[in-house]
Amino acid sequence: MTVATHDYRQGSKRHVAEIKFLIHDLRVEPFINEVIHFHVTLNTDLELHGVEQAQAIHGEDLASLKDLAVSLRKAFREYSNAVRNFSPDQTILRTGRKYVDTILGICDLVLNPLWGRSDQVLVFLPPTSRSVQARNHYRNCVAWIRGVRARILAFLAEQDASRDLREQFDIAGEIEAFTRNVIQGYVAETGHAKVELQVGPLEPAVAFGNLPRFHRMYFNLVMNAVDAMSEKRVGVLRVSEVVEGNEAVLRVRDDGEGMTPEKVAHLMRETVSLDGELHSLGFVFVRQTVADFGGQLTIDSRIGEGTTITVRFPRLLGVAPPPRKSAPGETDLLPKLARIDADGSSPGAARAPTGSAPGAATLASERGAPPGPAPAPVAAPGPAPASAPAPASALASAPERPFGELLLDDFRTSKAQHPGSLFAIAVSPTMRVDAFTHRPYEPLWDLAHEDLSPMLFRTTVRGRIEEDEAKQPMLILKPPQDAGEYFDFRELPDEERSMPKFLQMVRDEYIRVARKLIATGLPASMTMVLADGPRFFGSDPTLAGDVPVPLEALAALRASGEAPA
Fold first, then answer.
1. Comparing C-alpha atoms, which of 190, 237, 250, 306 is closest to residue 532?
2. pLDDT (average), residues 253-273
């Protein structure tokens, strides 16, 4: 379906629609609240540990942020009232711009290197303090705020009618960079670490148009997908971009609740009025942007199965992808994006040097390397793991740890409002546990797997234990995030690496993990849900659906090469 080309493009209506689009997209208040929460916790930790001079300086910084946050809430109330009361366009524009300017002031404050100075004062605190443990979460929020600032500045530049902001850019490069710097943090924080983000393949293709609007369009598609999976215990968000003839085809898929044909038709038809209406504004912006690029937009959605949004952009033929212009400080935000291309390779994953990550010595020893002390792991940013992977020599000589019992104990002792435990585990084909980290849910912070193991969180099977509808513990398992790093961790030769090999190895490891957890304390009858089950278990009706099944159903399967029982 060709997209409509005339949704409020002239005069004050256009400006009202644009600022509504921007404010709808920003979603910054929760992240600002988390930044305040972190700094309140940091100030308390400084007081508890007697770091008085740092506490005094930090307290002044925190007071400035709180004052701005009060102004932000007031500005948002004024804007919301203007929209709800169908105020004149100029009133909506004035209150909306005041709200956006206040957000920009908070972004500037938080990103000012002279404000907060958390990295400088955290060194005075022990690793067990709450603020040290929450550092990765805080950095996620700051990365998001940095992205918000960039989007506001791009919006303000667009308001200058004398400027032509169109340019040539590589769609694949922009998707990868924007995903790394904005999308990953948003999905992790808003999806409460229950949404699995898979990116790839991404194929170079040059487009011509307004790049900031392209970013905002892509972000809207992601927001809608994450919202659609809000009720799932585990969801999968897939982003890909491939070249098909003269077009670059972007697809954003979710396995959320899906939409009725009537809802799809509503999203695709022209808007009658935007006055006072905030619902579906994001998709109106998507339609307008696709039209600006001369593209086409389609929606394929089924109730209970999810939604795929496909955007086809005309590409410039015979034009080499131009060098990408990085935003200031962009490389400091988040790690290189983990993505899997169609052949199973992971171009973004650098090989870990020998001994650079916990677990490397374990694998070397298991394969018959000369005995000796394990090399010290390289220090990683963020809090220390709750329990670090043990050296192979210790695992060989010591009684096996009660891995399953430890996870249940974490769940039972969790003081969070919704109790649970978080863990990562790697089980070799010989049933040796090469890596294991775990921690109960915290009362005030949403933990992510990178909080447990900054060096290994992309390479291990990841899991959670949470309450089901009957308040009983239920297991959720997720696959390794990065095929390249997984192959590195398992020391698989380059010539053997492929997507089928990755799927087969992870499938087998899922089975081994289930057996190991049952053998060490998890009840075989505990219910379990697999993230992206169909990808690893095909059409197996037991493991490919969303319905929880007993853990023993996974453990009973045959791994590759196993003889029949």
1. 237
2. 77
509 versus 278: the higher-pLDDT residue is: 509
> Three-state DSSP class for 165?
coil
Please give the pLDDT value at position 280: 55
Stretch 18-29: mean pLDDT: 75
CA distance 280 to 504: 41
Of the pLDDT bands very low, low, confident and very high (cuts 50, 70, 90), residue 119 is: low
Flag whether pLDDT at 152 surpasses 80.
yes
Q: Which two tokens stand for residue 37?
A: 């929460």
222 and 273 in contact (C-beta within 8 Å)?
no
- Retrieve residue 1's tokens: 């379906």
**Which of 536, 477, 485 shows the shortest CA–CA distance to 506?**
536
Ramachandran category for residue 43: left, alpha or beta (phi over 0 → left; psi -120 to 50 → alpha): alpha
What are the pLDDT digits (tens) for 82-91? 888 888 888 8
Domain limits, the chain: 1-163, 167-317+332-337, 360-555
Strands (E), 86-210: 166-170, 195-202, 206-210
167-317+332-337 CATH fold: Heat Shock Protein 90 (3.30.565)
Q: Which residues contact 11 (CB under 8 A, 6 or more apart)?
A: none
* Burial class of residue 316, CB neighbours in 10 A (0-12, 13-18, 19+): middle
Using CB atoms within 10 A of its CB, is residue 10 exposed (0-12), middle (13-18) or buried (19+)? exposed
Pairing of the two strands 306-314 and 296-302: antiparallel
**pTM of this prediction exceeds 0.70:** no
Say what the pLDDT of residue 40 is: 81
Is residue 467 within a helix (H) or strand (E), and if so which, with residue range?
strand 461-467
Please state which of the ranges 358-362, 430-434, 482-486, 516-520 shows the lowest mean pLDDT: 358-362
DSSP state of 161: T
Report the C-alpha gap between 404 and 394 in whole angstroms: 19
CB 72 within 8 A of CB 103: yes
